[in-house]
# Entry
Amino acid sequence: MKNISSANTITLLSGSSRTKNTNLIISYIVLIMIIIASAAGAQNKSGNLSDEQKSKINSILSAYNNATLSSEQAKEIHEKFRIAGIHAGPETKDVIISAGFDPEKLNALAPPPAVAKAGKQKPMASEMRLKIVEEKIIVPLALDAAQASAVNSAFAVFYEETDKIKKTQPKGMHIDKSVMQPLEKARNEKIQKVLSDDQFKKFIDLEKSARPPKPDAKSNQQNK
# Structure
């Protein structure tokens, strides 16, 4: 009887040991899976994309046309990217370009939330002015993607420079023509390089109509 009892005790101890070992192995497996998942998440946040995310970018962009992209559509794209967990980065940029879109144009039409918060040097007024450029210049001229991107970029730089000057001006005072003319000339020279002669002539007329009215002009009209 003693021998049987001892054998049973050994069997029970062995079973208990196997259970502990099994639990320990399962714990190690779970820990390894957590580490792998964390590493994958860290890679995605750093800008590296999974095949699924690359496919998602292409799927999102397939619903739009880069040549006729509006500010509202650019905002929709950024929001869809955010929901899909797609972060800005070199790999994201490459996939967007491969899909036939210009990342710089996307950001110019509608800066992503992270860029908008970090880039306080770009006021909302600049974004609104670029929207006017799109509606009153780019669309009427029926520019292709490369031309539209160049025009957007030229105006973005122009607005950035004029905003810097405005910050140094007394409140309510307009920038002197002698300061504005070189900025306008530099902007127009960039644009002229990507337009045909006929397009550039039309651009000159359209650019004048796209300018916001001066406050003085508004008050004079009201006084009349």
